[in-house]
Amino acid sequence: MWANETRFEQMFSRSGKMKVFEFNIGKGIYSFELEGIETEFHSHPAIEVILAENGEFSIATEKGVHPNLNFAIIGANLKHKLSALNCAIKIIMVEHHNSFVVSCLSQASIDLHKGYFFDPTDYKRSSNVINSLVHSIQNGHAAPEYDERVRNTIDFLNTHDLEYGQMLQTLCAISNLSESRLSHLFKSNTGISLKRYLIWAKLKATIRRFLNDHDDLFTALLTSGFYDQPHFSRSFRSMLGVKPSKAYNSRFVQVSGTRNQ
């Protein structure tokens, strides 16, 4: 999973550099380290694992604040806020494999059925479990769990740049489903609407182009289907919890590992 460092670009973390280990849209795995971050409430369709490299962090959900944490797992589409201003953290995001992840965690006595799991103690055992399940996904031992028509829809969204109206017409033709049926099936499988997933897909495409294709941020966001900088900023803040102006500043991201697909 960890590979030789390859290049530096301006990106993320207002108080330090961010190291990207993996940004793999095809596998649905995104892994990075950073420090000195505080987000607003946000949600995204990926399970998020947060591990403290040093110090402690806190997580707030709509049910309350959980301070002094070393390890946390946030379920997909759960609104949350992260504060790690004095802490270096590793974040691993996994999408498309919710049932597999929940099952693996359950075998390790980590219960995610409430939508989250917080641990203020040493996370070494939990970290080993996470590394094991990520390795299984990387090596194709866990297939995406959705209906085949939903899998085809996600594959299409992750590989094409379309506006919402064009997208619906095309996806209905590909899936041989009506707009209402496809929308219902997609949300029941993923927990997120087609329209919101399209925003998520555009965000991922923007970051991938920025990391892989040496595009500047503005070119990457326009190429990925955002109308303009404000459109991108609103979407970024809604799903990742920070303004791009705080994320893309004069710091460095160190890119290594798998950034493709």
UniProtKB/TrEMBL annotation:
A Pfam cross-reference name: HTH_18
InterPro entries reported for this sequence: AraC_XylS_family_regulators, HTH_AraC
Domain HTH araC/xylS-type per the UniProt entry, residue ranges: 151-250
Domain of life assignment: Bacteria
Gene3D superfamilies, A to Z: Homeodomain-like
Residues in coiled coil: none
Entry keyword set: DNA-binding, Transcription, Transcription regulation
Cross-referenced PROSITE patterns: HTH_ARAC_FAMILY_2 (PS01124)
Gene Ontology molecular function: DNA-binding transcription factor activity; sequence-specific DNA binding
Name of the protein in question: Transcriptional regulator, AraC family
